[in-house]
Write a structure and sequence with these properties.
heterodimer, A: alpha/beta, B: 463 residues, mainly alpha, two-stranded antiparallel sheet, 17 helices
Amino acid sequence: MNAQASANDFILQVEHLSMKFGGLVAIGDLSFQARRGEITALIGPNGAGKTTVFNCITGFYKPSEGMLTLNRRDGSTYLLERLPNHEIPARAKVARTFQNIRLFSGMTLLENLLVAQHNKLMKASGYTFLGLFGFPSYRQASAESIDLARHWLEKADLVDRADDPAGDLPYGAQRRLEIARAMCTGPELLCLDEPAAGLNPKESAALNDLLMDIKNNTGTSILLIEHDMSVVMQISDHVVVLEYGRKISDGNPQSVRTDPRVIAAYLGVDDEEVETVLTEVGDEDVIEQLDTGPDSAHGPGNSASMMAGPVSDSVEHADEGERVTVSKGASKAAQVDARAASIASKPQSAAKPAAKSSAPKTAPKKPAAKASAAKAGSASKGKETAAKPTAGKPGGRK
Amino acid sequence: MAVTVSSERDTVATPIQRAFREALYAGAISLGLFVLFIGLRTDQNISNELILVQRWGLLAIVVIAVTLGRFVYVAYAVPAMERSKAERAQAPAVVAEPGFLKRNFNRIGLVVLLLYPIAMVLLFGFQGSLKWVDNFGIQILIYVMLAWGLNIVIGLAGLLDLGYVAFYAVGAYAYALLGTHFGLSFWILLPAAGCMAAFWGVMLGFPVLRLRGDYLAIVTLAFGEIIRLVLINWREVTNGSAGISGIPKVSFFGLMSFNVSDPNYIAKVLHIAQSGAYYKIFLYYLALALCLLTAFVTIRLRRLPVGRAWEALREDEIACRSLGINTTTTKLTAFATGAMFGGFAGSFFAARQGFVSPESFVFLESAIILAIVVLGGMGSLGGIAVAALVMIGGTEILRELDFLKAVFGPDFTPELYRMLLFGMAMVIVMLWKPRGFVGSREPTAFLKERRAVSASFTKEGHG
């Protein structure tokens, strides 16, 4: 990952990206790279700023600071933060889907895919003037665009419903159609915002196949936000973990799932206790047992890994959506804590029943995140349960 | 057993019983409502004093009418409707083959429109046909053209434009001013007026690009008023409220003129009797040609990427941007194209009237055009044409209904109730067909078969 190799290996380089909404730092100094031809997953708890990163990459937000470099296959380089919104898909060839599906619901599936080929067809129709008089060149381009649309409808297994309105499709099919529509723009980087959200396991598996097919057959690199760890761990080559707008881990799926910081972020364990937890819990199998119920946000059977998080975590955050409501400096405090923890934790790490007190332990994260008095009460309770004198900490975090 | 018997009796007896009960309630409510409105009336007597006139007879008639009406409705009309509905539900869902009229609607409509002036001349003679060709035919066609133009902005691109009449005015004044001052012909000024209106469409479009929904509507409304006020106050150019008169007539491509004094007057060239009807018939066909041009361009544009982008913009603007569509230019082209057809209609209007004044371009015109688009079904050309026929033709025909005087007495002037009936008709149509006459949407491309998209999926756009 040195700068030398970056020019061709990396399709997207995010350097020192910051996004501030007023005083709120949604993303702070984020840097990561996405390799060409790979699937890069962007994960993190709700409100970590993943969608904000997407919105910066696809031009819906102008980042406050930082550089977003996109290297296309032909060697041309685009600085995404300088391109107008609509030119990012058109020129830099970055396509995206949305967390809440945005299809043209009153148009048929075929029309949806034809709209995606707008720029190509605009040129072929001589910016409408040639097309208005029915020039053959436009007719040919139009037939080609229908062929491409048919190709992607077949890939998405939707060709039987090509002439139905998109709004009439079931949810899972709408997700696939949105991906097919994004692919019709001929992208080099495809950004998928929670493509598996709300899918049942079967649909989720079909989605995995579609994404692997895109990766293997089109050479399109994929950047993926996902909460469904069965999708992330199976198909992604590289995982970036965000928490409160900061990168806390970066690497292949295996290394990320054993990263103590990631575990802390998802399970809400105090930083000082991470090592304890690790030593006590040993491996992921035990942590899996902590997830007493299925992850309510994603339906049954999806909490296949430790990173799906316990129920309490996802529920607490769910009502926040992707809106970042972190008090300023919360994440910084966490870093400071982490540093302090590495020094101070060893002597204090008396044996604690980590496995049993998982729920109270999630609590101490909450006051830091939301600075709410109500939560502080439960937080202190959590501390008491843990029987650990960390008196200075709650105040320090706020 | 007992249960079945009682239920049987219920189904037989209940409607009548219920009807009695509801009729009594309705009678009581109407008595309460009308006892002061109808039963008593204040009036002046001969010595200019205020007196109370009692009208118990009239009150009794109204209350009895309400009671009986409710009784008949509940006892007979409702069961009959339910029965027919049940029968329809029971009948196997035959895919109703659209009738001959429905299938060939466009072709039949076109033939009727082409033959209309000839039929009128044959029926009423040259002089008698004037009213029918001019007041009905041309008037309706102008509104059809305006509504089809506005349909591009509202029906396709989903941008709520309440100031459309501004472009109509720009077109009309462009023709009036350039025609009277420079003597240019209609055939040069028609495209010029269209271009000018399109230019103003872009001028309006730029500042309102960021606005959506209600906010857009307000700004376009203001724009329409600004244009009208400029026309009133810029006396040196527009002659203010007095308007511009003496606008040259349209010639038949310069070959034949419709001015009696000209050497190439049509009657002299063709050696036929002199009549004013020729010009009206010519204008009718000209308006029809302009309408067909508008329809042709609209249909073609819908199948081009720009038309699809308009519709996509109506459905979801953010998704459009994520697909690389430049929403700025897409919106501006929608405004410009819609305005251009408004300009065409305006210059035709000026040529037909021979006189323009700001009075013709008030907000009511915008509202009527908008109402036609909404009633017809946004995006549907056929529905809009029918709506224009109903709205404009309907209000015009009220002038002709002299027999109503026999019913309501000689003081009754149906024209005065035009707007009342107009409003009532709109309310009824909107209740009956909330998405307009033609709510469904024709897809612009298809893989296997063309199926209309139900209105429940299409969006109206957010502005």
